[in-house]
């Protein structure tokens, strides 16, 4: 079965090369466009099974393609999207992975796509609802997320801090000693890089970090 695909890439040679490659492997490229606005229009016109888009496209050559993909998945949450990039665009990468139903997303770094068969397999997997993310992207996002270093118990404690519980209330809720809660809270402050000071202020800052995460 043909996978109807919209391809967005501002480089003419790469765009034509990718279109020919996809055609060879059983994809039907219903539109091949050069900018983010044309991508949105093509998806609206053709209702494809898959979008493959570069991230940096005209007019700003920053993250127009990625922002367009996030926008498209707000209106069509099940639209499979594979984003291709030279770099890890952390802000919108996280937004893309969180968009829609959370399924049918690929984020690949161009320089690490070294095998055509593997690339095609990734496209098919995403079109079928799978999620494939380049390991470098995962590592960068984990470094960017300050909560990534917390243990499961520390996340539980921080969640209760965010709900306004004092340490005694957290201990009662989790059925652990207050001393254990004090230790967990101290570890949380350290891992989040909150320097010693008034604990009340650090609890507020930790809560804000939790809510942003």
From TrEMBL:
Domain Response regulatory stretches: 4-125
Protein name as annotated: DNA-binding response regulator, NarL/FixJ family, contains REC and HTH domains
Positions carrying 4-aspartylphosphate: 54
Organism (species): Lentzea flaviverrucosa
Keywords, sorted A to Z: DNA-binding, Phosphoprotein, Transcription, Transcription regulation
Signal peptide annotation: none
GO molecular function terms noted in the UniProt entry: DNA binding
Keyword presence, Cell inner membrane: no
Pfam families according to UniProt: GerE (PF00196), Response_reg (PF00072)
